[in-house]
Amino acid sequence: MHVALAAAAEGARLVHVSSDAVFSGTTARYDETHVPDPTTPYGAAKAAAETAIKGITPTAVIARTSLIVGRGDSQHERYVHALATGAVTGALFTDDVRCPVHVTDLAAA
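User: That's the sequence. What structure does it adopt?
Assistant: Structure tokens below.
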């Protein structure tokens, strides 16, 4: 809310990075017209932030991303690469479909 208020006061364009966690996953596909129905506290917090931002700055861009990846040097990215190459055994999610986006592509968009 504070960032949205500051952007509105300055007439600045706000781009809010939200999450696909605002959705429950009970629908096969989601688009911008779907009403959030989060099932986790994280998703609920992101949905609440979206609501506040839309109320303060209706022209704000809300980007609902999934996983944001970078150069591969984060703990999470290293773990996924290790799983993929067989260097470690384990599992991530078995009931979750994610759509990773590279941080450079997200920033360019």
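The first strand starts at residue 15 and ends at 19.
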